[in-house]
Amino acid sequence: MDVRQFIQTYREDWQKLENFIVTINKNKREKTSEDIHEFHRTYIKVTQAFSYSQTYFPEEEVTAYLNELVAKAHNLLYQDKVSSRSQFKHFFTQTFIKLLFEQRSAILIAFCLFTFGALAGFISVVTNPLNLYTIIPNEIAYSVDPNFIGATDGAPGASFMSAEILTNNIQVAFLAFAGGITFGLLTVYVLIFNGILVGALAAVFWNAGKSYEFWAYIVPHGMIELTAIFIAGGAGLLMGYKLFVPGKHTRVHQLKVQAKRSVQLIIGTIPLFVIAGIIEGYITPASISLEMKYIVALLTVFGLVLYAMIGASLLRKNASKQSAIH
Questions:
Q1: Full-prediction pTM beyond 0.85?
Q2: Do the Cβ atoms of 110 and 59 come closer than 8 Å?
Q3: What is the distance, to the nearest Å, from the Cα of residue 29 to the centroid of all Cα atoms in its chain?
Q4: Residue 294: closest CA among 284, 304, 285
Q5: All structural domains of the chain with their residue ranges
Q6: CA pair distance 241, 39, nearest whole angstrom
Q7: Which residues fall within 8 angstroms of residue 227, CB to CB, at 6 or more apart?
Q8: C-alpha separations of 96 from 89, 264, 271 in Å
Q9: Among 134, 206, 220, 224, which is disulfide-ready with 276 (CB 3.0 to 4.6 Å)?
Q10: 79 phi and psi angles, rounded to 5 deg
Q11: Closest by Cα among 204, 220, 195 to 119
């Protein structure tokens, strides 16, 4: 290949990289993860061409040109702060929302499994209160006393409680997610068991005529917390289903693909768990009225719905842009 053929063959990639450099420099705040990945792929192609040019055309002007182009691209590529900030924004405004909508059926199944467990636990304990001691751990069963609900409101130690609750919730979500590797069986168990736990405790307070008080201490953090657990559970269920029914692909291929998607869903739930942990550690035990606790719960639901609506709107706008381009 002579220098003319070399230039003619690879000129399009060089022009593409130049355009990326100009665009990124002008719109640093608008980069998406797709932009960055495409930029990186083009950069690799050009560096390979530069290496070839150095070897076979060291004295040609094209080599000096490529050297300068690669240097400019390198400087942009390793601006970590800009890239990280852009990827973070893109993930939570588009990638995570898109995954939620794509895998909503699995998330709905996770919700149904939890609800089934909750109803079973509630009916069992309402029918026979002694069943409480056979269906949930003893350390929880013996510590439940409806008469003492709210007795520790305003007590110190909220920050420690928040951290402890956050850790426990993330462990539950991780088990629900990781259970996908067992063809979803562990995920099903975790969802149903946690549903039984909540249902059984609700029955205790129902029998004592304290349901209003009980739910006032559950729903402020529970709406966000359970949403995150359902998302994690849905991720585990989908992974398990793809392993059980791999279709045309091998189970190893399905595991790689679904594990990546599921991990992204889990990452997306981390802010939800942080918010739920803060509410449960600081607001739930605060010395405020039960009505205020319910208002907090409504605000969390409103926030979740608003986030989903904004995300869906952004997805539609991007889809419209892509359609216009093609």
A1: no
A2: no
A3: 23
A4: 284
A5: 3-78, 94-325
A6: 35
A7: 272, 304
A8: 10, 7, 12
A9: 224
A10: -85, 80
A11: 195
